[in-house]
Every structure is written in structure tokens, then in C-alpha cells.
Amino acid sequence: ATNYTILITGESGTGKELLASSIHNASARANCPFVAANFAAIPENLIESELFGYEEGAFTGAKRGGKAGFFEMAHKGTLFLDEIGDISEEIQLRLLRVLETREVLRVGGNRMYPVDVRVICASNKPLLQLVQAGLFRMDLYYRLSTFKLSVPPLRRRLEDIPILLNDLLKKYHCGKKALSAPILECLRRYQWPGNVRELLAIMENYLLLLGDNPPDPALLTSIMNEHSTDSVEALPPAT
């Protein structure tokens, strides 16, 4: 219900973007844009122009009329900045200025664009340790971490597995019977290094191969072993 900047931390695959989207949808900005940017997926030489936009002629290949960046696209809404720990010191400084002034200067431009944006950031790296190592600006860290949320890894919330699989079961027209006691036990005996993303990938593979057959712990164990570097012990046969 606030406009505070939020920093979400957690391992890769825990659902940080989903949490950010949920915060946006529960806020007064819900009817305005939710724009997500993953810094790990953007080439370093494009981050500045993608984030802040650019004016016509700013560089070779620039679009006629220029282009709005993520901040302008998220005007009145929420901007989600994922893997914030991956940005360079130069981008850190520019980002800090935008957060302080609420104005954006496009690459190659001389005009400031006012922006009304709520910023939510996420990182799977310990930002405070990056600050202590001199790799992340302390002033930017405190600007981003007005309110901090930590998403625990799946191995620490195994009781969430049935809830996390609800939509997937509906997609394959499976009821709760697909999550029999042996299947749930098999899922709970695994450490899930890939977290929720790995859970969904493995279960979708399992449901595709299972088809209309009854729950098959041996099949699930086989699939989990194919996906993992750690061996998953098969459950003893039911007596």
C-alpha cells in the first residue's frame, strides 16, 4: 500500500519477479504498467539505452524519433529491476540520480523526462557484501533497500509444494490425486537447487509422460535423476 522502494533477495528460481508482480497488483498502481528488466539478460553496452532510453541519432542504429527506456515505459506504474547486483558502477551512478531526482535523461539527449515510478529490485547476490567489497555503491544500496524482503529457497518451504503446483495440475486437468502420498514424499526428499523453477520443469515433464496413468513414483524419480547432479533415492515399493 506504499510507494517505498523494495529490495527482494533470494536464490535464482525462488519467484522474486512473481512476488514483485504481486506487490504491484495489490498496490494503487495496479492499473498502470508493470515493467520488468533483467540486467543479466541485457548486454552491458545496451543497459544504459534500455534503462533510460535514447534520442534520435544518439548512436548508429538508433531508431528515428528515439526510444523510451524502461523508466518512461513504467511511468505511473512499477519498474522491476532484476539481478541489480550485475550493473556497472557507471549505471549505478545514473540509476541513483534518477531515483533521487525522479527525472530521466535519455542517451544523447539534453531534456529531462519526469517519471513517477515505484521501483522494486531483486538480487540473488548479497548486495551488502558487494558494498563492503567496493563493487556496489553504498548510497545506492540504501536507496534501494528502504524495505527488504527475503524469499526462502524451496528446500526451506517444502510444505508449499502442493500450492505451487496448483496451476500446473489444472493445466493438465489433474486433480489433487496426482499428488499421492508417495509422490509428495519423493518431492520432499529432494533439495531443489533450482528452486520453484526446477520444481515446475520436472513436474511438467512428469505429467506429460504420465498421461492418464496413475501416479508413478518410479517415473518421477527417474526424471528427477535426469535433471539433477545429485542422485535421488527411489522410494521402496508400496506393500
Structural account:
- The chain is 39% helix and 13% strand.
- It has 239 residues and is an alpha/beta fold.
- It has helices at residues 16-25, 44-52, 70-73, 89-101, 127-132, 138-144, 161-164, 166-171, 181-188, 195-210, 217-227, and strands at residues 6-9, 34-38, 78-82, 103-105, 112-114, 118-123, 147-150.
- The strands form two sheets. It has a five-stranded parallel sheet. Strands 4-5 form a two-stranded antiparallel sheet.
Shape: elongated
Q: Count of helical segments?
A: 11
How much of the sequence lies in strands comes to 5-15%
Secondary-structure content class: alpha/beta
- Topology order in helix (H) and strand (E) letters: EHEHHEHEEEHHEHHHHH
Which descriptors apply to this entry?
alpha/beta; two-stranded antiparallel sheet; 39% helix; 13% strand; elongated
List the helices and strands and how they pair.
Layout: E1 6-9, H1 16-25, E2 34-38, H2 44-52, H3 70-73, E3 78-82, H4 89-101, E4 103-105, E5 112-114, E6 118-123, H5 127-132, H6 138-144, E7 147-150, H7 161-164, H8 166-171, H9 181-188, H10 195-210, H11 217-227
Helix pairs in contact: 10-11
